[in-house]
Specification:
Number of helices: 19
Mean pLDDT: 83
Number of strands: 14
Shape: elongated
Helix content: 55-70%
Low-confidence stretches: 1-9, 32-77
Structural class: alpha+beta
């Protein structure tokens, strides 16, 4: 009996291993299919083979839809054994439109350089959405495609809040959904069709195929687009530095102010204060260790003690230096705040002039007998509003380093793909010579030419008020560069820096003869206040944060200025759209 059991044991073990292997394979296979094809309803698979032996289709079918999961005709193999998307037949106009969008988009410029533009354009299929359809939902992970809009408009909503103005409305030739494919992240926003929409769609597999080509630097593209979009998100209101305010606001409560740290001078000056206290501590410890003083650690030093008597003249010199440093530093801070205040006033004046132009044009533009805008009058308002927005944006791209990327060809390409400028505007600005003074000058010239043309055809009255406003606007924004160029002479800033540093460097040694060990906290407080005042002056001398001297945000949020001007570019058009009285304006 024992012998039979011994014979059966290897057989049982072998069968058990085979069964276990079979179970593992079945479990793994079912898990893969479940992960790939999970849906809300019951699923069944069907394999369809048509008369073309090279085509096999697998579909997942539930109670409400039938989705093609894989088709062998969708992909061919390239020379590197990668699945190459099959070209979809498009009309000549459709193909030309897709190619023109891809050619000017920063995301696909490497693909264009490697000669894959035609293949990429041919991988798009045509889709349509009805008004109100949700194209993407924030957090989506199952919609693996991107779109190029051909007709219609889409609205963008983030965290339940619709993004206002042009930054929240996508129009042709805008590109939608490409970032989720590029970054391999969930959908960051909800996109809803505001009108009936016609678009061209590219699936994730085809996108990845072209973005992994030999000449495509995907990581560099990600970094560049991330930097550009960070700036665009600031001016669109997606990201706000101070909760929508132009500067960080405060509450007059003492308790509230004492509880602040981020964005205060304490955050900037504490390191210098700690360093000074460390030097003072080492000096005090050295005296007690090497000189063996007779007084207790907390007592005032004996003025007749040799080392202390030698420090008394230094203390007198330090007091003289303190008077000079206090006067010069406070005056320096006053000058810095004056520059900061003048800069703030200038930014508001620019906004005011842009609003004045919109108000004047909306009030005097051509109307019909019912007091409504004529078609060409409304077109003029739209053009001037659009050029005003671009002018203000490029104005700050000239003077603020954080926004300079928007005035580059790649920055403008990204703005085009997000619907912030039209293709005609993009082509015109990118074809301008680099010596023309910048795109802001071009946009201001467009406004003037539009107004002068409208005066000739009587769409606007021929008077000097509008021209004077435009000339005043040019002079005001040009003054920003003048103020920044002459903010403070080098010799002045250098002298103040040396004076304050010398005063604080002597403090640990000069104060010991008067305060003893208490010189340690005294030095910390003096450094905190004097170094803090100097740092505050430097921050105020850089209102646009171009020097990046201070890590925490302190100065203007340029995005607020741009967002407010964008709202003003359409405010007066809609305010004067209907009048409660008749007009006698002549065509």
């Amino acid at each position: 009996m024992a012998k039979k059991d011994a014979i059966r044991l290897p057989t049982i073990i072998a069968r058990s291993i085979i069964i276990l292997f079979f179970v593992i394979c079945c479990t793994y296979t079912s898990t893969c299919f479940a992960d790939a094809f999970q849906s809300s309803g019951s699923i069944r698979f069907s394999s369809l083979v048509d008369r073309n032996p090279s085509r096999t289709i697998i579909r997942a079918i539930n109670s409400s839809s039938s989705t093609t999961l894989f088709s062998s005709r969708n992909f061919d193999l390239d020379s590197n054994d990668r699945a190459q998307p099959t070209r979809i037949e498009r009309t000549e106009d459709e193909r030309a439109y897709i190619e023109s969008v891809l050619r000017t988009n920063v995301l696909f410029q490497d693909v264009v350089r490697q000669g894959s533009l035609i293949d990429l354009a041919s991988a798009f299929d045509r889709v349509e959405y009805k008004k109100g359809d949700t194209i993407f939902s924030q957090g989506d992970t199952d919609k693996d495609y991107m779109l190029i809009l051909e007709e219609g408009e889409c609205s963008i909503t983030i965290d339940g809040e619709e993004i206002p103005g042009i930054y929240g409305t996508m129009r042709p030739p805008a590109m939608v959904g490409e970032l989720a494919l590029l970054m391999d992240k969930d959908r960051a926003a909800t996109v809803i069709a505001k009108t009936n929409v016609v678009a061209f769609r590219l699936d994730r597999a085809s996108f990845k195929y072209f973005m992994t080509g030999p000449l495509v630097k995907a990581e560099d593209i990600k970094t560049e687009i991330r930097n550009i979009d960070h700036v665009i998100d600031q001016i669109s209101g997606v990201k706000k530095r101070y909760g929508g305010d132009i500067i960080r606001q405060f509450k007059p409560s003492r308790r509230w102010l004492w509880g602040r740290w981020h964005g205060t001078i304490l955050q900037q000056a504490w390191k210098a204060a700690a360093t000074s206290m460390l030097v003072s501590t080492c000096f005090v410890a050295a005296i007690r260790f090497f000189c063996r003083p007779s007084w207790a650690p907390g007592q005032i030093p004996d003025p007749n003690f040799p080392i202390v008597s030698r420090l008394v003249p230094l203390a007198k010199l330090w007091h003289y230096l303190m008077s000079i440093t206090t006067f010069i530093l406070t005056f320096f801070l006053s000058q810095a705040y004056t520059l900061w205040r003048n800069m703030y006033d200038t930014t508001r004046k620019i906004q005011g002039r842009i609003n004045d132009i919109g108000l004047l044009v909306a009030s005097t533009v051509e109307r019909d007998d019912q007091g409504k805008y004529t078609k060409r009058g409304e077109n003029l308002l739209d053009d001037i509003g659009n050029y005003s927005r671009l002018f203000h944006l490029f104005c700050w791209a000239k003077y603020s380093k954080k926004f300079q990327v928007l005035s580059t060809s790649r920055g403008m390409s990204r703005m085009l793909s997000r619907g912030i400028m039209s293709r005609t505007e993009y082509n015109t600005l990118t074809s301008l010579s680099s010596s023309n003074g910048g795109p802001h000058n071009a946009c201001l010239t467009w406004i003037l030419v539009k107004c002068l043309t409208a005066m000739k055809d009587n769409t606007l009255p021929n008077d000097h008020a509008l021209r004077d406003l435009l000339f005043h606007l040019r002079g005001t924004f040009a003054g920003i560069g003048d103020q920044l160029d002459g903010r403070i002479p080098l010799a002045y800033a250098h002298f103040v820096q040396v004076l304050v540093d010398s005063f604080l460097l002597i403090a640990p040694f000069a104060l010991y003869s008067e305060l003893g060990i208490w010189s340690i906290p005294a030095v910390g407080l003096l450094t905190l206040f004097y170094a803090g005042l100097l740092d505050l002056a430097k921050i105020l001398l850089d209102p646009l944060d171009n020097d990046e001297f201070y890590d925490a945000p302190v100065n203007f949020d340029i995005g607020v200025l741009i967002r407010e001007s964008n709202a003003g570019s359409t405010r007066w058009k809609y305010s004067a759209e209907m009048l409660p009285f008749s007009t006698n304006f002549e065509s």
